[in-house]
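A quick aside before the break. I want you to see a complete sequence-to-structure record at least once, exactly as it would be stored in a machine-readable document. Don't worry about memorizing anything.
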Amino acid sequence: MTDNLVVTIARQYGSGGREVGEKLAKEMNMAYYDESLIKLAAEKSGMSLEALENVDERATPSLLYAVAMGSAGIMPFNYGMLYETPLNDKLFAYQSQIIKEEAAKGPSVFIGRCADFVLEGHPKLVRVFIYADLDKRAQTIASRKEIEVGEAKNLAVKTDKKRASYYNYYTSRKWGRIENYDVMIDTAKIGVDGAVKVIQEYIKNLG
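That is the input. The structure line, written in tokens, reads:
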């Protein structure tokens, strides 16, 4: 059942999306990718890992990017011969190619990075969105970062806005819209373990 299966997980900050992905990958013996994609992109491009980390999942509007992307979905790596390409756009291009390459190798779980868009058309793609009540997420973030709940709530809102801006810009879609995903799960109600079980059950029932 897991042959060529790819699960992409978009998530609200503090909802446990990363934990869901890690547990799912471990239980189903699938490769797992999150920030590791930045390291792979740095190795592939020769660019500074620190510089790429500073722009990860952040959009910088670029007319050149829009022109280069066109309807192809991914821009070519040599398109910057005449123009200076924003680092954000370079990272997105490299990460996108790596996502496709790694997904072709075998069963994989990808966290964020517009992977659902990048892998559109993959024969066994399951697109998941993990969310939770803001108060619940704020409590989780506050505990994890040892900050006040009010500060954690503001951080959650700001982080989600950045993720939405990144996704909306590079995909021309709306982050969190139901039509962009196959499964949407509220972890505030069923927790990380429950979310993993829901995804596994969905996979079992795929044709």
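Two observations worth writing down. The domain at 6-197 is CATH 3.40.50.300 (Rossmann fold). The chain has one domain: 6-197. We'll return to this after the break.
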